[in-house]
Design goal:
There is one protein chain. By secondary structure, the protein is α/β, with parallel strands linked by helices. It folds into two domains: 5-173, P-loop containing nucleotide triphosphate hydrolases (Rossmann fold); 188-297, GMP Synthetase, Chain A, domain 3 (2-Layer Sandwich). The chain contains nine helices and ten strands. α3 links the parallel β4 and β5. It is globular, with a radius of gyration of 20 Å.
Length: 300
């Protein structure tokens, strides 16, 4: 039998480049919130892939952006810290770029500094012509000695095994760090918070920016009248302004009901158990500068 291999793989890239979509594709489960918005991922989320001869632990990091608040600073710091702690880096860029943009340049410099084995993943290739892709590959190849350059579309499952094979090839022999049944190190409480936040981001469109923060206050398992297991979950959606609160609740509470319904369906599918979800909305104006909240987003 081949030596068993294992290692930590950091996914890094600018905001909105498709990291969370790629993580969920590779893990085959939903571990990261996906919304077509900047800064969807706030913490380093670990997704675990167990293969016959390897265990790959992916760390999805917040997108690199210019920090404007304490929260943003923590997010960027988390991304760069996980870079130096990884065995392999998956550097995700967009196929639509013409050159190395400022954000990608900062990441590339950090990769050079960390001297990490890196696989360049070019996402969204369905949006461009082959000549443009070849030119982009050429530009990046001159900058760094990548282990491989893999053009993909993160929404297409056919790229999953290609990427996993390439990663496994570059891993060193090592033990399984997690139980082979696990696919994330996040707790159910964290996953519940992620799911509610994702639904809120998707349904609220651009009306409410990223000024929301979810806290699950209660999570208790019990049997219902039919003797089925059920989780009672109570969560608060915190926002920055009263005007945002009104938008999140919606006319006659409709928007909050839609968020709750979508989150409950997703949780039942993910957790394999019935969910009774109650949500509230509160205003907390300074939470993005509040140390006790921001500390939760630091890399543990």
């Amino acid at each position: 039998m081949e030596d068993f291999k294992s290692g930590f793989v950091t996914l890094i890239g600018r905001t909105n480049v498709g990291k969370s979509t790629l993580l969920n594709l590779l893990v085959g489960e939903k571990v990261a919130a996906i919304a077509n918005k900047v800064q969807t991922t706030r913490t380093a989320i670990r997704g675990i892939v167990n293969r016959e001869n390897s265990q790959i632990i992916f760390v999805d990091t917040p997108g690199i952006h210019k920090p404007k608040t304490k929260l943003n600073e923590t997010m960027v710091e988390t991304s760069f810290t996980s870079l130096t702690d990884s065995d392999i880096v998956l550097f995700l860029i967009e196929a639509t770029s013409d050159d190395i943009g400022r954000g990608d340049r900062i990441i590339l410099d950090k990769i050079k500094e960390a001297k990490r084995r890196t696989i360049l993943v070019i996402n969204k290739i369905d949006l461009i012509k082959r000549e443009k892709l070849l030119s982009l590959i050429d530009i990046y190849r001159k900058e760094y000695d990548f282990e491989a350059v893999i053009p993909i579309s993160a929404i297409n499952a056919k790229y999953k095994e290609i990427l996993l094979d390439e990663i496994e090839k570059n891993l060193k022999p090592g033990p399984a760090y997690y139980d082979i049944e696990e696919y994330t190190d996040q707790t159910l409480r964290q996953l519940a918070e992620e799911i509610i936040r994702e639904k809120a981001l998707k349904l609220l469109q651009d009306e409410v920016p990223h000024g929301i923060y979810i806290e699950v206050e209660k999570m208790k398992q019990r049997k219902n009248k039919k003797k089925e297991d059920i989780y009672d979950i109570e969560a608060t959606i915190y926002c920055l302004k009263n005007s945002h609160k009104g938008i999140i609740i919606g006319k006659n509470g409709e928007m909050l009901k839609r968020i709750g319904r979508a989150a409950r369906i997703d949780m039942e599918e993910n957790f394999g158990i019935k969910i009774n979800l109650k949500t509230w909305v509160k205003v907390k104006e300074d939470w993005q500068e509040n140390n006790s909240i921001v500390d939760k987003f630091k890399l543990k």
